[in-house]
Amino acid sequence: MTVDGAVVGQIDEGMLIFFCAMQGDDAAKSAQLAAKISKLRIFKDEAGKMNLSLKDTGGSALIVSQFTLGADVSRGNRPGFSYAAAPEDGRRLYETFIADMNALGVPVATGRFGAEMSVSLTNNGPGTIWYDI
Q1: Which phi and psi (to 5°) does residue 38 adopt?
Q2: Catalytic amino acids?
Q3: Of 8, 24, 27, 114, which has fewest CB within 10 angstroms of its CB?
Q4: Does residue 130 sit within a domain?
Q5: Which residues, in sequence order, are CB contacts of 129 under 8 Å at separation 6+?
Q6: Count of CB atoms within 10 A of residue 86's CB?
Q7: Residue 11, Cβ neighbours under 10 Å: how many?
Q8: pLDDT of 71-118, one tens digit each?
Q9: What is the CATH number of the domain that holds 59?
Q10: What is the number of domains present in the chain?
Q11: What average pLDDT score do residues 37-65 get?
């Protein structure tokens, strides 16, 4: 991932996590999300079955702030972002989530909160999951 042409976050094997804090989210939700993601069995075992977690594989997490996931497109043609957390709350929860993942022993790389980032992904299989708590 780059910002203004400079690499700011990069991992090898692991997960790319787009993180969006919504109004009403709190530190307890962050901890719950981190615990679930760290144990989610989505990586293939020796038999090719999705049976291993990020912690099992020793993979890393690239965590990117992405408030646009909170877009409301129910009316008109222009997305509204009023359900996303305010920027100061979003930053605090983003940083809390990063700390929660680190506390669980998951190596973390990050983007830069609020920056225009260029994110590259090599998706190894059909492994894209939406998780909302």
Answers
A1: -65, -25
A2: 66-68
A3: 24
A4: no
A5: 40, 42
A6: 11
A7: 16
A8: 889 999 999 998 999 999 999 999 999 999 999 999 999 988 888 888
A9: 3.50.80.10
A10: 1
A11: 94
